[in-house]
Amino acid sequence: MKQFLNQWQETITENATPTFCVLPWIHMATRPNGDMRLCCSANASGAGTDHTVGLVKMENGQPANFATTTPLDAWNSDYMKSVRRTMMDGNIPSSCTKCFDEENKGVVSKRMWETTSWMDRGIKPSEMLNDTHLDGTYKNELKYLDLRLGHTCNVKCVMCSPHDSSKWVADWKVLAPQLEDPEVKRQMQWDKESFNNKWHENEIFWDQLYKQIPFLEEVYFAGGEPLMIKEHKKFIEEIVRSGHNTHIRLRYNTNGILVDEELIELWKHFALVKVGVSIDAHTDRNNYIRYPTHWETVERNLHMLDNTPDNIRPSIATAIQMFNIKHLPDFIHWKVTSNFRKVNTEVVKNVQVGGGLVNMHLLYIPTFLNIQNFPNDDKAEIRDKFMQFKGWLQDHANLDETFWQSNPYGWNRWEAMLNYMDSDSHVERLPGFKEYVTKLDAIRGISAKAVFPELAHLL
Ligand code: SF4
User: Fold this and answer.
1) Any idea what DSSP says for residue 454?
2) Are 147 and 218 a contacting pair, CB within 8 Å?
3) How many other CB atoms are found less than 10 A from the CB of residue 213?
4) How many Å apart are CA 459 and CA 450, to the nearest integer?
5) Alpha helices in 27-163 (DSSP H)
6) For residues 386 and 219, what is the distance between their CA atoms, to the nearest angstrom?
7) pLDDT at 282
8) Res 51: pLDDT
9) Which residues, including other chains, have CB under 8 Å from residue 361's CB and lie 6 or more apart?
10) What does residue 347 show for φ and ψ, rounded to 5 degrees?
11) Which of 8, 17, 39, 95 to mutate to test the pocket of ligand 1 (most atoms within 8 A of CB)?
């Protein structure tokens, strides 16, 4: 793992500066409420964080919000120019500390994989730096959009909140006044009065983005649930109409429920379409976590995606949290024995995405669902389960050598998760976990105890 990190850091330093990241030169990202952010790592989505870190601010100190600010005004705002200048000087912008902290811990940061992947695709950082004015101004040509077009969603995942899901609002109205644990209360705060879910209907926003289509190389849609947003479909139809579809790749985070033949027909026109389907477990456990999903629909749509033309590359994205880590071996058993043709088979930078299994990322927020909260006995049980499962994987899954040796998303990832889990203890969060789950279950008329007997002693 370290070997990958060192190589990638060397490449970045040789071609730019040690703290260079390609994103401030090519990328524009939105939050579901229309605020522009530097990227999704600088400004983590979800409840409970300080939502202002990593937001692009305008000269009046307020976040650039696309209900009222145009994308190109924000692109060369003092904030964006300052981030570029800081990186050009070899320093770390204050919004970017998360990436550098991760790298110090030996984790592949978003800065590393984005910058080196874009370089593999032909981006030349030295030319970009030459083309940047001394004050940090850069040309109005966006290559990469990360669009979260509102919080409209058809599910209300247990780890989500009204920030990212409209479906959560009704439950939140009942739950929020009942919460007593101070930390759970704080993390479940949401200002329903100030949330604007209409900003993505702003015509000036789309006028400017439509004019960027000739420069675009990648558009990433997440949500809310992106497939519910009508402007998403209009935008990709316009790309096809303009003829620029052949040089644009699309990328999605979706719950996969609304994938249909009509959409697949449209995707066939693009250079590449990467569809990350968020699935956290199988059968009833996924239905609970991604409430109220029907497993049969998710599984059927995954098979539909698996039988599409080769430009469409499906993968499974899994958020590792208290609700699913004990079940992960069973989930991966399902994945392996489902014999998908191409789910998670894509190779990027010489390694298989998600190690050929599923893409796993740790859930940090809300903290009361984080895996460090488990008591020591549960942690030991999880470690044992993983080690037993390792033997099954070796015997039954057709994984290449890199999975066991060098792929940072292979077995290294499993071990990194265990090490992370054991590196700190937060049992003090367990009362908050119990309160949150018990009260939410009562509102939804479901029972975590019944679906997750392995967690019953904590509920
Ligand atoms: S360094 Fe990290 S946080 Fe900063 S823009 Fe790049 S990816 Fe985002």
Assistant:
1) G
2) no
3) 18
4) 11
5) 71-75, 78-88, 97-104, 110-120, 125-130
6) 36
7) 95
8) 65
9) 317, 318, 319, 320
10) -110, 125
11) 39
Task: Indicate if the alpha-carbon torsion angle 25, 28, 31, 36 is positive or negative.
Answer: positive
- State pTM to two decimals: 0.90
Q: What stretches of 101-248 adopt beta strand conformation (E)?
A: 144-148, 218-222
Burial of 223 (0-12, 13-18, 19+ CB in 10 A): buried
Residues paired with 424 in a beta bridge: none
With a cut of 70, which residues of the chain have pLDDT below it? Answer: 1-2, 44-51
Q: Are the beta carbons of 56 and 79 closer than 8 angstroms? A: yes
Strand order in the sheet with 272-278: 36-37, 27-30, 144-148, 218-222, 249-254, 272-278, 312-320, 359-362
Quick one: tokens of 8? 């990638």
Choose which residue among 109, 113, 220 to substitute to test ligand 1 binding: the one with the highest number of ligand atoms within 8 A of its C-beta.
109
Number of residues that make up the chain: 459
CA nearest ligand 1 atom 4, residue:
96
Write down the pLDDT at residue 46: 42
Which tokens is 151 given? 């919080």
Q: What are the residues whose beta carbons fall under 8 Å from the beta carbon of 144, sequence distance 6 or more?
A: 23, 26, 27, 28, 118, 216, 217, 218, 219, 220
Residues 452 and 434: their CA atoms lie apart, in Å, by: 13
The whole-angstrom separation of Cα 384 and Cα 83 is 45
